[in-house]
Every structure is written in C-alpha cells, then in structure tokens.
Design brief:
Layout (H helix, E strand, L loop, with lengths): L2 H11 L13 H12 L10 H7 L17 E6 L5 H10 L4 E6 L20 E3 L12 H15 L5 E4 L12 H4 L1 H14 L7 E2 L6 E3 L6 E6 L5 H13 E7 L11 E8 L1 H21 L12 H5 L2 H30 L8 H11 L10 E7 L6 E7 L8 H9 L16 H6 L7 E5 L7 E6 L7 E3 L8 E2 L11 E13 L4 E16 L2 E2 L5 H15 L3 E9 L11 E10 L2 E4 L5 H5 L4 E5 L2 E8 L14 E4 L2 E5 L10 H18 L12 H5 L2 H30 L8 H11 L10 E7 L6 E7 L8 H9 L2 E2 L8 E2 L2 H6 L6 E6 L7 E6 L7 E3 L8 E2 L11 E13 L4 E16 L2 E2 L5 H15 L3 E9 L11 E10 L2 E4 L3 E2 H5 L4 E5 L2 E8 L15 E4 L2 E6 L7 E2 L16 H4 L4 H6 L5 E4 L2 H5 L12 H8 L5 H18 L31
Function: S-adenosyl-L-methionine-dependent methyltransferase that mediates RNA cap1 2'-O-ribose methylation to the 5'-cap structure of RNAs. Methylates the ribose of the first nucleotide of a m(7)GpppG-capped mRNA to produce m(7)GpppNmp (cap1).
GO molecular function: methyltransferase cap1 activity; nucleic acid binding
Main location: nucleus
C-alpha cells in the first residue's frame, strides 16, 4: 500500500483521528491529556476536580488561582521536542503553579518555545547536557542533567516524561531492537530525576515527625514492542523500583502502530539507588561495547522474571490486547483503502466526548504564519510568529483597565514618604509595621515593571516618566504576560572574605499586583509576598538558547523562504530575588556584613539566591548592599490589632467603669478623637455607613406616616421580596407550626410548668416511627447487646488479629448495656435491655438529654477522680459503646472507626454541665389575664451527666493498656484513664485526672458485615445459623434480639489478677493478657523481641542485595490494568 493511500485510509478509519492537537501545538499534548485522565490525574497530581476546573474552566466561568499558596509542581520533559507534553502540563497546572525542565536533541527537533500558546514558556527551562547536543545516550550528558535539576530544586521532580524515538522506515520489525539503548537511558533519567518516596520518622522527643511522609515521583515513558529479554528486564526493574506500573496504549495513539506507554507510580529508595546504579553501569558498558560491535542481551535472568506469575500474566495480557487491536485496525485500514468513500461516522461524536472526558475546552488553536524580521542588534534574520488580528494580545492600557477598571488601585507604592518618630507615634501599634531592606538609595530605582503579550520587551514607569511607560532595558529579564511588579534593579554580590565580588545584576522584588493574570492586588502584604516568592521560584532560569536563521541565496524562495538555520545564541537572564517583610523587632536583630567597597565601608545583608539550598543549618551566602529601609503598613491591618493589649485595655476600662458607677461618673472616650479622625479610610467608611442607615430611617419613617394616613394601601412587592430573600439566604419556604401554651402540674415539685402543644398534623414521631424510618421493613443496626464469650479458640478462628478491636467495659452486669433512644414524642429518654426485651421503658438512671432521633448503645457507670490514695466518685456518666443514629444522621452502615469518630464529635457538642429552667406558679390575684393566672416564680438548675465515648483499640494496644489499682469498696479494683468533658486533648498530655473502673472487655470484628434480622421474626422462630454462632444463639428470643441482631462480637472479664500479673497463663474468669500476647504474636521477653528484630533485619538485607537477582522479591501490588476510552466503548468495536 502506498504511503499516501495508507495515510488517507487511516484518517478515515481511526475513530479518534479528528481529536488532533486542539489548542495545543501538536498531538503529543493531547496524548498527555488522555493519559492524565486514564491514570486518574496522577501525571499532573490534579486529584481535586473542583480545584482543577477552577484554574481551567471548560465553560465561560472566570478563572481563579486556587493553588496560589501550594508548593510548585516540578516536572522534566526528556526527548520530547517540540514540547507538546510540557505545554499541556503548564496549561493544566495554570498560572505559576508549575516549572518544567527540558532536555532534547539540539537542531530541528529542539523545543519550539515560541509556539507555546496555551501556557507561558517562561516557566520552562531547557538544558542540553555538558556536550550541548542533548544526546540522552551520552553518559556525561545524563550525569550533568541530574546535577542541573538537583542544583535548582534539590528534592527531585514530581513527574518525568520521556517521548524518545526516531524514524525506522523500512526497519519497522526491528524497532524494538534499535531502540533498546534509548529505552535504557530514558529509564535512567526517570530514576535519576524523580523524587524518592519518604516514610515518616519520629523525632527523638516523640512529639513531632522529624521526616514527613512524601509520595515518590512518577515516570511516563514511550515504548514500542516489548518482546525481547532486554525490554522485559527493563520493565521488571521498574516493577521493583516503583509502587506500581502500568502499560497502556491511549486512544490518541495511532491504533495500528506498536506505540504504548509505561507509567510508573511513586519511586522508592531501592530504585533510586541500587537499580539506578546498576542501569548506569550497564549504559557505560554498552557505550564501551559499541566499538567492539558487542551488545547486552538481557538485564535480569529469564527464570527470575518467569517465576513471577503476577508480572508475567499482566505483561502477557497487555501485549496480546495491544496486538489484537493492531491486527483489527490494520484490517480496517485495508478495508477503507479499498473503499475510498467510507469513513468512521463516530469521529465527531467521539472527539466531543473525549474532550469533555479529559476536561479540555473545545476550540481550535489559532493559525499563525511565520514571518522573518532582521534583528537590529545582530543584523540576522529571526523568525516571528504573526497571529491573526482577532487573536492579538492586549496592550498595556488594556491590561490596566482589565484589572483596575476606571481607577488604578494597586497596593504597591512608588513614592514613599520619609519615616520619622512622629509617624510611629501616630501609629497605635508598632506591630503593624513591616520593614523591607533597600539595596539602592535612589528613589527612581523603584520601578513599576509591566509585562504584556503585546510587547516583546518589558515596560516600566517611575518618577521621571510618571505619565507614560517606556521600555525596560536595564537588564535582560523575561516575565509571563499580564504581570505587574514593583522592583529595584541592583547588583548581587558574593563574599570572598575580604571584599564583595559582583555576580551580576538582579531584580529586588518589593511587591506585586498581578502575576501572570493572577490578581493579588487586594490581598494583604504577607499573602502577596508568599505569592510572588512562589512566582519567582518558577520563573527564575539561568539562560535559554535561541536559534539564529540567516538568508541562504542558494535556496531561493523554497523551504523557509531562503532562510536556514545558522547557529544558536544564549540569552542569560537576571535573577528575581524577593524582599522579605520583617517585623520591627526582627529589623533590630538583622545581621549585616561590613566590607570595604568602592572606596568606602558598605553594609551588606544576606539573601537567598536562585540555586541555594534553603536549609536552617545552611544560611544564605549571597549578599545585597544595604542603603535604606522601606516601612509598610499592611492595608488589612486595623488600629491596635494586638489581641492581648486591646483585651487588657478594655478589661481595665470595664473595671474602672464598675467602680465609677457609685460616684455617678462615666468614661466618655476610649481612643483620642484626633487619632481616629487622622485615619481617613476609617472615618470615610464610618461616615458613609451612618449616613446610609440614617437616610433609610428617614425614608421609612415618612413611608410609615403615609401608610398610616392611607389604611388601604400596602407594599405590593412583599410576597416577591419574601420569596427572593429566602432563596438568597438558602432557606426553605415553609411556616413554623402554631403552638399554644398549656400548663401541667409537676408531680415532683407540685408547681405548674408550661408545656407546648403542637397541632395534630405536626406531632413528632414515636419510637416506632423512628425505627421504621431508619430500617424500613428490616431493622439494620450494627450495635450489639448480647455478646458471646471471648476465648483463645475465637481468636484462632479469626484470620487476622488486626480485624479485632477491644472496648474496655466499666460495668460487669450484661444488663448495664442499654439501647438508648431519644424521640421528640417523649420528654424522657427510652431504653431497652435484656430484662425488658419486648418493649421500651423510661430511662431514669441519670439525668441526660439527647437530640431527637438518636439511638446509642451505652453503659451507665460512675466517673472517678484520682486523689492519690483512693478514687473519689464525681457522679454518674454514660459510657458510649456504639451508635446507630445521631440526631437523624444514620451512621449504622458505616464501619466501626467512622461510627466512633461520629459519636465522638456528637458527644463533644452535646455535653453540657447544667441548664437553667424557669418555674411558673399560679397567682390567684391575676385571674385569667396575662398568662392565664400563671407567673414566674424562680429558676431551677438541671445538672446533666456526661457522655464519654469508648475508644476501640487494637489487640496489641490492649496488652499495653495502663491501669491504676486502688483499694475501692473493700477490694482492689483496676481503673483506666479517660478523657472527660473539660480536659485538653493534647498528645503530650495523656488523661491523668478522670478514671473508670475496668471489669471486662468487649471485642469486635471490624471486618464482619453488619447482620440483619426482620422485626417480625422475633417470636422464637428458627433463623438460618451463621458461622461461629450456635443454633441457640441464632434463635430470636424477644423484640430486642430481633432489633439488634447477632454478630461475632465477644466479651471477656477482667479481674485484678489480670492487671497485677500480666503473665498469668490461665484464669477461670476470662482471657488473660498473656493469652492475648501469645495469640497475636507479641514477644513475651525482650530477648525474644531482639532476636526476632535481628532476623527480620537480616532477611531484608538479603532481599535488597542486587548482587544476586535470585533473592529479589517483586512488589506486592499488581500493575494497573488498561482502561477503556472516554465514551466507555471498546475501541475495537465500530
């Protein structure tokens, strides 16, 4: 088949051919978008859909930089000219949230930075290796690339993308063999540049983590066929080096070719050290073997790879699936070539679905045509892209009007007044002031720097040209479009010990208003400084390479119109260093270095430069000269914003007024009137507010008079405004039911108390309604009442002790476990337990109130306080074991951990010490007037019991639980500490004040599914027996048994012998601590523990030994399977 004929058939047969490049420069960007979505946004790390669409909305919504204060996202684009991968990644991260590093072959396949239209190329820094050719197979280039990236970010990148390949026309069947070296070198780049996964390490004091857990970097690389042992070995090594890997052929890849991508997630330390070292050594060996015409055939022994069944099954399935699709589409191409009039009718619909599925807007990239102009400086012709008229970027006037409207309102200041002691005296608090060190004395050195896409050079405005903008040509610097900064152009120095050596010019950034279309002008000073600091970190780059084209008289008008590539030129950029606002106290502690400079002694202060490692133990080593100080008062600060001082002052005023009441004196003012009137912004706001409220008062007083004179008139907008107001306030539109007061005699006190009676159709539900509402025909609550005995046999039957959770029980009696129900139809709580298993009765053990529609499983017990020698009872409390419904929130189907967290929050907001209630009594003198003969008599105080939530603990934690043994009621009793209502819950302060008795333990299996039993199956009817439960237990004995069901939960008694003798082997009252330790594998002695630790350590060292591949074990997680396209349709079915 002819090439032209094949291309025509492919364009009509490929259902996704019309996706093309969209608004990006080439199809590679669309491939990245496709892969990013398929791998659940693990390429761009944009997991939050709301934040992702806020930065790049698909519709016409306004953009917003929601990641302004998040750390920058770093990526590397290798062998990927002209840069479609990077253009997509910079667009997806948006604004200044990402920085890329590029490495590719120099020449015609170089990055085309001038064609980055979807995002700014100012965040992309290119590098071509120590040899300057961008050859990824050169070992020297690989080493210099790793050093280049490490010098700039020090931690590795989040993502490495490799898209290397070359033409194999006529040798398509040998493409894998010919590409093996580029495979190898790209994998080395991925292992060298990705950040390594770190695991948390606790500090010595145990309070904070010394090392925070951080996910490793991801790696994406293009492959072709993977049949040879060499390719298989590379993939297997990636399988060991990353948490998981995937092989996938995206729908944006031509379906008939052998192209596919390997995606590796989260690099581990084994891959970044030993595997990387091994592959670098292999590459060096292959470099030396080229001259001998020798080659490396395999990297990992074949029997080791074939011994991993999961890996082989995944690779086999992946290869067969891609091969099947290739065969299908090759046949389809042949059919479409034989029938020129046919085409795939789903192309338009699939393109629309794909863009929507990938969260991409649907518009095409504007066409641009090349134009060559002569560079006035060099005299050479350079290429310039001219966009169509309707796509021309805005001018500097448009930029200011877009961000300021009719008035320019930026908090950056150009002309600054002199700072004297009077200024500080007028300021109510020095804490409001922030100081910026200034390296230049001349006021005109402060420049308002503006970047627009309509001008190739930056524009500036200062005092000398305060009415217009002019070109900024002091130093060479580029900024993304729509950026407005306040800067000083100064010199950066390095300390040689005796003098300061100038390194070059830099920009000292004082403030910012707009950062690449991100308007930060109305933010406070601290937030603006943080934003511009991140902006400088991703914009700073050392240099960039630019191609020079010259006219070739031999070429005529063909090709590039007589122009051909001549050479490269390097543009070196000045660095952006951001000034750090400091408090006045920090200004007095600032350290300076004094050196002899230009014939006089000059003070220098240290700054963090571009490639410095920002570590506390390594102070900055670059310096700027110190000339003066600029003081700022943040626009968001308020007078006397020191919380402690204002509070202390107002408390003193209140105490003074308390003492002045007896003297009939008063305080007339708190702040001097002169100080308040001197704050123009404050006075303007107060004046405007008072005038507006007074105007409305006068208007409505006149309106009231008019309506009083005309009784038949009314405001016709009332109904509409009421509807609009409720909708605007997000309130439902219904009226409160009317209720009338009714008085009943309290049987205890004999006094009349008010009772509200609601209308019949608004009566709250009963307890029966409550259960039917949350269970339907079947009652399904995971709270259990009757619990089987816990023995060693039970734990042995459990597949894993990690499934078991233990709850300490303060009461021994089984009937003390109560199903507590609160409904709005009953003033008192209702309870059900074993004794009253067929009905509910009033819960009167202690005084406690709960919101309506609440179902808890509790124990009523006593809370104690440790006096040192004995336990002092403080009163009754509720020990909450579990919950099903919390104030209409059904948590019954949640797992144990989630239910416990919910009921813990519930208890925190429900607990209260006491409440005050009014008592009304009958007054015979009042008759039926007023309150119907009732009048207020006095207040009574109701004290409530506290809800304390039991905390499920693992079996190992149960063996480590600490108890306090005290003499109590004639015997020794064990107590365990709990968090009470008023305790400060801090990790460094465990509970020490309040205690509960310990008489047993309740043990639950958290992985067991919830058990359901019908409500109408409760009259001792036979039910199907379940594993681990006897037939007698499976019978439904009463209503409560049917309500809560049965589950494999267990109980064991704790006696004082368990606490005093943890090594007790047998005890008739229940399971011993020693038995629990033995069953869950906790070492009995320190000697056994050290022996086991040494054995594990030795086994790990043997496993990680790269000298013998026979002992390396693959990762336990399986590779991710490929996914279908966005339409959900199998790509082989047309």
């Amino acid at each position: 088949m002819e090439r032209k004929e094949l291309d025509a058939a492919r364009s009509r047969a490929n259902p996704y051919e019309t996706v093309k490049a969209g608004f990006f420069q080439n199809r590679a960007a669309m491939k990245t978008a496709n892969l990013d979505k398929i791998f659940e946004w693990r390429l761009s790390w944009e997991f939050d859909e709301e934040r992702r669409l806020a930065k790049n909305p698909i519709n016409d919504k306004d953009r917003c930089n929601v990641d302004r204060f998040s750390p920058p996202f770093y990526f590397a684009d290798v062998c990927a000219g002209p840069g479609g991968f990077s253009e997509y990644m910079l667009w997806r991260k948006a604004y200044y949230n990402a920085k890329g590093f590029g490495f590719t072959l120099a020449g015609k396949d170089d990055f085309k930075l001038d064609r980055f239209k979807a995002a700014s190329s100012d965040y992309f820094e290119t590098f071509y290796g120590v040899n300057g050719d961008g050859d990824v197979t050169n070992p020297d280039n690989l080493e210099s690339l790793e050093k280049f990236v490490d010098d700039r970010i020090h931690t590795g990148v989040h993502l490495v993308m490799c898209d290397g390949g070359f033409s194999v026309e006529g040798q398509e069947n040998l493409q894998e063999v010919l590409s093996k070296r580029i495979y190898l070198c790209q994998f080395i780049v991925g292992l060298s540049l990705c950040r390594t996964e770190t695991r948390p390490v606790k500090a010595e004091n145990g309070e904070k983590n010394a090392i925070v857990a951080e996910k490793g970097g991801n790696f994406l690389c293009k492959l072709f066929d993977v049949f040879t042992p060499f390719s298989m070995g590379l993939i297997y090594l990636m399988y060991l080096s990353f948490e998981r890997i995937s092989l996938h052929k995206p729908i944006t890849s031509r379906p008939a070719n052998s192209e596919r991508y390997i995606f590796c997630e989260s690099l581990n330390s084994f891959g970044s050290s030993k595997v990387k070292k091994y592959l670098v050594e292999v590459n060096n060996r292959m470099e030396s073997m080229e001259r001998k015409k020798e080659d490396v055939m395999e990297l990992v022994p074949d029997e080791l790879i074939r011994g991993d069944d999961d890996f082989m099954e995944y690779i086999r399935t992946s290869i067969e699936e891609i091969a099947r699709r290739q065969v299908f589409y090759l046949k389809k191409y042949r059919h479409f070539a034989s029938n020129p009039g046919t085409f795939d009718q789903d192309q338009a619909k699939l393109r629309e679905d794909a863009l929507k599925y990938w969260d991409l807007p649907d518009f095409e990239r504007p066409k641009d045509t090349p134009r060559f102009n002569r560079n006035r400086t060099s005299g050479h012709m350079e290429e310039e892209r001219q966009m169509s008229q309707n796509q021309r970027p805005e001018t500097v006037g448009d930029l200011f009007r877009r961000y300021s409207g009719d008035r320019v309102h930026f908090p950056i200041k150009r002309q600054i007044a002199r700072f004297t002691e009077d200024v500080l005296q007028r300021c109510s608090d020095a804490a409001e002031m922030r100081a910026l060190l200034m390296p230049e004395r001349d006021p005109d050195s402060q420049v308002l720097l503006v970047s627009t896409a309509g001008h190739k050079t930056l524009l500036m405005m200062h005092r000398r040209n305060g009415s217009y903008f002019e070109a900024f040509q002091s130093i060479n610097v580029t900024l993304p479009k729509s950026t407005i900064l306040l800067v000083q152009c100064t010199t950066l120095y390095e300390d040689t010990g005796k003098s300061m050596h100038p390194l070059g010019k830099c920009l000292w950034v004082l403030d910012a208003a707009v950062l690449n279309e991100d308007d930060v002008s109305e933010m406070d000073l601290k937030a603006r400084n943080a934003a511009v600091r991140k902006f400088a970190a991703v914009v700073n780059r050392l240099q960039t390479r630019r191609g020079i084209f010259e006219k070739n008289p031999n070429k005529g008008r063909g090709g590039r119109g007589g122009m051909e590539f001549s050479r490269y030129t390097y543009d070196t950029f000045a660095e952006l260093i951001v000034a750090e606002p400091m408090r006045m106290k920090a200004l007095t502690e600032q350290k300076f270095i004094v050196r002899q400079h230009k014939g006089s002694r000059v003070a220098f202060f240290p700054v963090w430069a571009r490639n410095d490692r920002r570590e506390p133990q390594n102070p900055p080593k670059k310096y700027l000269s110190f000339e003066r100080i600029s003081l700022h008062k943040p626009i968001t600060s308020r007078p006397a914003n020191s919380e402690s001082k204002v509070k202390k002052y107002l408390v003193e005023v209140n105490n003074r007024m308390e003492s002045m009441e007896r003297k009939k004196e008063d305080v007339m003012e708190l702040v001097p009137d002169k100080l308040i009137r001197g704050d123009d912004d404050f006075m303007e706001y107060i004046r405007t507010s008072i005038e507006e409220i007074a105007r409305r008062q006068v208007f409505y007083l006149k309106k009231y008079r008019h309506f009083a004179s005309n009784p038949g008139t009314f405001d016709q907008d009332q109904a509409k405004l009421r509807e609009d107001a409720l909708k605007y306030w997000d309130l439902p539109d219904f009226e409160r039911p009317k209720d009338t007061p009714r008085f009943n005699r309290n049987r205890t006190s004999g006094h009349m108390e008010e009772e509200r009676q609601m209308s019949q159709n608004q009566r709250p539900e009963t307890v029966g309604d409550l259960f039917r509402r949350y269970s339907g025909d079947r009652v399904h609550f995971p709270i259990k009442r009757q619990i089987a005995r816990f023995t060693e046999d039970v734990l042995q039957r459990c597949s894993d002790a990690a499934e078991m959770r233990a709850l300490l029980m303060p009461e021994r009696d089984p009937d003390s476990q109560v199903l507590l129900v609160s409904t709005a139809g009953h003033k008192t709580l209702l309870m059900m337990h074993r004794r009253n298993g067929s009905y509910f009765e009033a819960f009167q053990s202690i005084n406690v109130t709960l919101p309506k529609s609440t179902i808890l499983l509790v124990q009523c017990t006593t809370l104690y306080e440790d006096t040192g020698k004995s336990m002092h009872p403080l009163g009754k409390c509720l020990w909450v074991l579990d919950a099903a419904v919390l104030n209409e929130d059904d948590v019954s189907e949640m797992d144990l951990k989630a239910r416990n967290a919910a009921v813990r929050k519930f208890a925190a907001v429900v607990n209260r010490l006491q409440t005050r209630r009014g008592i009304f009594e009958k007054n015979p003198n009042k008759g039926r007037g007023g309150r119907g003969g009732m009048e207020f008599s006095r207040y009574t105080y109701d004290t409530f019991a506290e809800l304390i939530v039991a905390e499920p603990m693992r079996m190992k934690a149960l063996t480590e639980q600490k108890f306090i043994v005290r003499q109590h009621k004639g015997s020794r009793v064990a107590f365990f500490p709990v968090w009470a209502r008023n305790d400060r819950r801090e990790p460094q302060n465990p509970p020490k004040k309040y205690f509960l008795e310990c008489h047993g333990v309740r043990i639950q299996n958290v992985l067991n599914p919830n058990f359901m039993l019908a409500r109408n199956e409760c009259n001792r009817e036979e039910v199907k027996p379940r594993p681990g439960v006897s037939t007698e237990q499976s019978q439904c004995t009463n209503f409560y048994d049917s309500l809560v069901g049965w589950a494999p939960d267990y109980t064991a008694n704790f006696t004082i012998e368990h606490i005093l003798n943890p090594e007790l082997e047998q005890h008739p009252s229940g399971l011993t601590m020693s038995g629990v330790r033995r069953l869950i594998g906790v070492p009995q002695t320190a000697a056994k523990s050290e022996e086991k630790t040494a054995t594990i350590k030795r086994e790990r060292e043997e496993t990680n030994d790269m000298a013998d591949f026979g002992v390396v074990q693959p990762l336990t997680k399986k590779p991710r399977k490929s996914e279908t396209g966005p339409s959900g349709k199998d790509e082989t079915e047309d």
